[in-house]
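Regression test case RT-17, inverse folding.

Input:
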């Protein structure tokens, strides 16, 4: 039996290798970073690290382990104070910390929608949302990406309670959800909107829900800290009822060891540092403008730090990536099954620390490659 199972696993891996889509762990390369999610450079910012180090030196007790789930022994007054701080920053009633955005979405979508409910997912929504929905007894349906007419047709034909799942800034396309129109549509049909802000958080202030003052009109928002905030983890933002419900019914929260105090301290430090350095966002937008002014074909929004340049065909895409790496320019090749076959693309992440010269070198090469098609 064991040999048969291993043979099947080996066949699956071999099939992926033949298709050119086998995933492998790679050490981060030495060169120009056009692929990490460190949009504002906080993950490698020495001044940000020095602030955190000083805080930890004054509070060495923060380095202790959590020792258990937050409902047993793993909660602390400090973690609660940081959650209160986050809620105040986002002008919402409550915040609940999670070890990752993936876990936050598992918690939300596995417990809020009920058996007779329907979850309507944007077809390009993050895999963590999809996996959370798989743990729910609710019915799941997709709607065409950012297509309000298709979403409305789903809402009009669907009886019972509906939930709508979107990202504010889509991680593989780099385009934006029409949040205000989505809120209006949800309100018209009595649906509940949940927004994943992983790639907007920090880049656009405290996220697009916050900057558009929609906090009280969405059911819940997920903000993550491992991207522009340079830390790790996530928070679900919502009213008292939503957060209390997660604490009581969300298995990914209830049965997970709590995060230690240093985890919360790192997150608070990123907020404080970002407030002290608003210029970082301006620098990032300047770099994005430098890239978009080159006029490359892209799926992405003009102000997005994620710029996806289409290169259909796995072999061609990988050749482009490897050629760029030979010039010490590191990008990310997005292949199936992450995206559909035929929609392969080079995902370029822009950062406040990239230079205009580096960006021009990248765009010059990419333009030459597209011009030779």
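Golden output:
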């Amino acid at each position: 039996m064991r040999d048969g199972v291993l043979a099947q696993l080996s066949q699956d891996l071999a099939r992926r290798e033949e298709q050119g889509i086998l995933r492998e762990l790679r050490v981060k390369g030495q060169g120009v970073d056009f692929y990490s999610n460190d949009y504002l450079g906080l993950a490698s910012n020495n001044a940000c690290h020095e602030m955190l180090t000083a805080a930890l030196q004054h509070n060495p007790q923060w380095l202790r382990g959590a020792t258990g789930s937050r409902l047993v022994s793993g909660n602390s007054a400090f973690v609660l104070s940081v959650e209160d701080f986050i809620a105040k920053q986002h002008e919402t009633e409550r915040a609940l910390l999670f070890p990752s955005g993936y876990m936050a979405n598992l918690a939300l979508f596995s417990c809020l929608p009920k058996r007779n409910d329907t979850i309507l997912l944007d077809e390009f929504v993050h895999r963590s949302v999809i996996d959370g929905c798989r743990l729910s007894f609710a019915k799941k349906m997709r709607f065409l990406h950012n297509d309000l007419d298709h979403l409305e047709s789903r809402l009009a034909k669907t009886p019972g309670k509906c939930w709508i799942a979107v990202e504010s800034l889509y991680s593989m396309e780099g385009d934006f959800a029409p949040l205000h129109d989505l809120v209006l549509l949800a309100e018209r049909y009595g649906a509940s909107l949940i927004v994943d802000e992983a790639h907007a958080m920090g880049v656009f202030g405290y996220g697009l829900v916050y900057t558009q003052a929609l906090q009280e009109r969405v059911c819940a928002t997920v903000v993550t800290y491992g991207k522009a905030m340079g830390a790790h983890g996530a928070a679900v933002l919502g009213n008292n009822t939503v957060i209390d419900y997660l604490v009581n019914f969300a298995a990914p929260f209830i049965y997970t060891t709590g995060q230690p105090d240093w985890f919360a301290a790192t997150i608070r430090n990123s907020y404080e540092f970002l407030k002290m350095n608003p210029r970082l966002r301006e620098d990032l937008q300047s770099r994005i403008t430098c890239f978009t002014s080159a006029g490359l074909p892209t799926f992405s929004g003009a102000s997005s730090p994620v710029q996806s340049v289409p290169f259909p065909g796995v072999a061609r895409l990988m050749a482009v990536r490897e050629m760029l790496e030979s010039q010490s320019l590191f990008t990310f090749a997005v292949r199936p099954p992450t995206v559909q076959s035929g929609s392969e693309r080079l995902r370029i992440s822009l950062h406040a620390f990239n230079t205009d010269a580096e960006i021009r070198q990248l765009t010059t090469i990419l333009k030459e490659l597209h011009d030779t098609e």
